[in-house]
Design goal:
By secondary structure, the chain is an alpha+beta fold. It has twelve helices and 14 strands. About 30% of the residues lie in helices and about 15% in strands. Strand 13 and strand 14 form a beta hairpin.
Length: about 400
Amino acid sequence: MSAGLSKARLEWMHEVLAGYVERAALPGLVSVVDRHGEVHVDPIGTTAVGGGAPMRADTIFRISSMTKPVTAVATLILVEECRLRLDEPVDRLLPELADRQVLRTIESAVDDTVPARRPITVRDLLTFRLGFGGLWTPDPLPILAAAGALGLAVGPPQPASVPDPDEWMRRIGTLPLMYQPGERWMYNTGSDILGVLVARASGQPFEMFLRERIFEPLGMVDTSFGVPPEKLDRFTTSYVTDPATGTLSVYDSPDGQWSHPPAFPAGSAGLVSTAEDFVAFGRMLLARGRAPDGRRILSRPTVETMTTDHLTRAQKDRSEMVPGYWDNHGWGFGVSVVTRRDDPTEPVGKYGWDGGLGTTWSSDPVEDMVTILMTPAMWSSPDPPPVCRDFWTCAYGAIDD
């Protein structure tokens, strides 16, 4: 089957993305458009400001929150093997989360609590409805101060500062939930807990489970929680973008926090990967769980469930997100799902997620297309930066059938 992509329009996409490098908004980037299995990879620029190695298809990036769908797939593998069940309480393997207390109000002191109405379930963790997660508020809430003091605050990933999984669980077990389980969507923390849950349910370290059950079958040879010395020449420098001036400053160097395995392999935002590797992950989901060599990672019904919106209107209305986001999006298991089309780049059923350190991925069953953009520049707000929007526009504009 022809890929149905316009060569001229893909060349125009190259010109648009190259403009960001020429204007010094980014040192470089790698884009991928894979339609009907025909893959177009376009590396542009270099891995660092003022030099660095040329970008390549196998350049390694910190993919931050694009880790979340990988963690969800790992969890669902264990659900299919009956080692976990979606609606069972997590208490059996995570006793630190048993008998939860919940803040009386979000402004309450951490000891002003009421009992949780029900236990936290595996489904709650997958859908971010456990009652604990990111709060984007300037108010000095006691729960945020307490979480920050324990190193549990939600923010840009800092793998060198996080303790081992058992200690991390002990710390989170000392805090009350922010809201009742199931009440609302709250970002991030569910994926970190899932990483610990996968390790305990499988009886092996989380990173080993990912390698044996996902990365090796898919040929994802450069995806891991750290970059070994022999690969550092392919690792980007990570930058923070000043939202006012657009200037870049170093957030993490190649020999920094990701240059060795972390104590805590974070299921929310810890992985590094390449465009080549992650297109294999996105294509596996489009193939309804089947690896290129025919092996099953997940069953078709499980992938369909993972990529279905699981949030009620009430849960969305109570949740913090970019204004208007829930009007045309939902949340499945570790992925965002398009629920209403009001943009050419967003057909209903498209799913994926972004990495706040500069990456984005989606898989689109309607167009049989995987799109990936990897940059080394951190997003300056929850709204996607212009380079992402232009990439999506050009990728969908290149469809020619």
